[in-house]
# Entry
Amino acid sequence: MTAQVPSNTLVPDTRTRILDLAEGLLLERGFNAFSYQHLAKALGVKPAAIHYHYPSKDDLGTALVARQLRRLRKWRDLPRVAELPPSEQLEALFAVYDTHLGQDRRVCLFGALAADFRTLPAPMQAELRTFNRELTEWLAQVLAVGRATGALRFVGSPAAKAVQVLTTLAGALQVARVHDEIPFQVIMGQLRLELFAA
Amino acid sequence: MTAQVPSNTLVPDTRTRILDLAEGLLLERGFNAFSYQHLAKALGVKPAAIHYHYPSKDDLGTALVARQLRRLRKWRDLPRVAELPPSEQLEALFAVYDTHLGQDRRVCLFGALAADFRTLPAPMQAELRTFNRELTEWLAQVLAVGRATGALRFVGSPAAKAVQVLTTLAGALQVARVHDEIPFQVIMGQLRLELFAA
DNA sequence: TTTTATGCTTACTAATTAGTAAGTAAGTTG
DNA sequence: CAACTTACTTACTAATTAGTAAGCATAAAA
# Structure
């Protein structure tokens, strides 16, 4: 029996390479815009090899969102993130979206799947809801502490502000896709102007 | 020769019925999630009839966005909208998004097409950019006058705030799709709380 | 009344899709 | 070494896709 987790070699196993490639295509072109043939051709294998690792596209999609959820939890609990003061935690979040922008203007997971949501398999929908809920709860906590300590400023409840800010961030990457990086930077500037206490 | 514009009968012509149906499917399920077969079956005609009116799906998609752009311009210039005070113009905009929410949680045009943007035909991309640009310019003007007259309140430039607010509105409908109406209402409440002067 | 344009249908093609079944080479384990 | 497992390939199916070409009924125009 071989390991199910990728080994620490320079080149990841096929299973991981499929997921990486599919993730890129999802965030750059949308879930309904790539096929097992695309994946196979890009990886230099036959389509059936993809089916071997992920029997159906539903399985692949679900695995994709599940991995993002695991990454979110890992990132959130990282000492270099969890132990930061709130305003820097917020900047760390902004940096994630900035990274997406830098990677050929990828949208975020939520922004990539929201429009086609009803065409997605139920397990994928469930994972995405969990992903979004946990991210929102994390940000609400950051905002609550940030305001309490005087580092952050906003009206309304931390929960409401968290929903609004995350929605705006997802949208900002979409606007960057449709136009260019400028509106994204404008939105980020606006968020900083409003949130960081003077 | 018959008229190219729909007549004033109760039932619209096939050309318009195709566009109406396609618009609904686009906003409810995404652009890559419906085919000419779906349209044909739902309208009780053969797929070739759709091709007769819109030779390719590119043509259909472009016609769809073009119509939305015409509607935006018409709405914006309507006396009952153009002659409103800024805060009520903003509420009129919010009401449009509220209508989308009420129509089976349809996302807005921008939110429906942003993720798949790179898979869209160039003319469709161009129309969507124009649509978004004109809507943003309109809102920037509303915000500028609103702040000048003391009815609206925000920091930063009207143009920046307009980009941010529209992005948030588009995202709000997407969040409603993924979860339920509650986060949408939460975001709207937050926007009103922040924008309308006390 | 002949002609022409409109709005379709029927019948088709070529490509692509997800998915399956059977086979196989190489490595792992008992 | 024998049995088994892993990670594929080859070869296939059935469905769906966009799109085309030709035919036809109806209605409007000359």
The two ends of chain B are 59 Å apart (CA to CA). The mean pLDDT of chain B is 95.
